[in-house]
């Protein structure tokens, strides 16, 4: 699991995923994590394995500031992960529950989105050195919410997400693009915090879906570690934000969550129809990942070409630079330089 990005905020869930009086299990970078709400409505995150017999806490319940394991009722504090009660102990038992601890994770909320801090130090309990990402409009409820589990390593999922050339071949919808409508593209890219952006520009003329928004849309697409892609489309004074989080579960499985936020009235009205399109996109990508796996199982040498695959190269460079900065203590230096990339799609 060492090739997963560490010492960074990972997307965990949105607020409505967590039952008001229940618990939610997520898996991030090989760690099962139990998410829940405290009595005051704030959130907590702890490792979803009871150290007694490995039952998941997420199948248990919350009791008075503790999570109770469903197997034997062991209870652990949601603040520090310290065991507070072992019901089976007799009064003269030499076992000291408060010497037993479960890993807890810093958790942060930016409006509807919940983030978990994933540290390389499993004992980390302090304040993370960087704030979680923040985006416009996420204080509103998402109008489209979809997700899919991919059978691949996170690197293949991220690279597929930022691949600009696969659209006419994988996403062959009449309302999007086709092989017969391929144009040469030239897009300006620039470094951004822990990532890069395709700078604000007018969408390509062969992207019919943008025309539904009316006016003269301008879009900016950003990527930042560990695997967050956003597209912010502005039409006059209205905005549509597409938020996509790519989160590794383990070495062979990756979860993608796509959310759309907007104050654009027509987009809200059309959201049931647009949601079907977004769902089709994700499933087509998932099907292609399964096809790709047929070749990957033979461990082939893979090629990345300029300029269509430059974003993939940047992703690997960003991962390496982030890891080096934490291994050496040196400041992180973004390896991405401003550049115009050209390809056909």
UniProtKB/TrEMBL annotation:
One of its GO terms (molecular function) is metal ion binding. Residues 10-116 form the Rieske domain. Keywords: 2Fe-2S, Iron, Iron-sulfur, Metal-binding, Oxidoreductase. The keyword Iron applies. Signal peptide: none annotated. It holds the Pfam family VanA_C. The keyword Membrane does not apply. It comes from the Bacteria. SUPFAM superfamilies: Bet v1-like, ISP domain. PANTHER family: 3-KETOSTEROID-9-ALPHA-MONOOXYGENASE, OXYGENASE COMPONENT (PTHR21266:SF60), IRON-SULFUR DOMAIN CONTAINING PROTEIN (PTHR21266). This is (2Fe-2S) ferredoxin. It comes from Algimonas arctica.
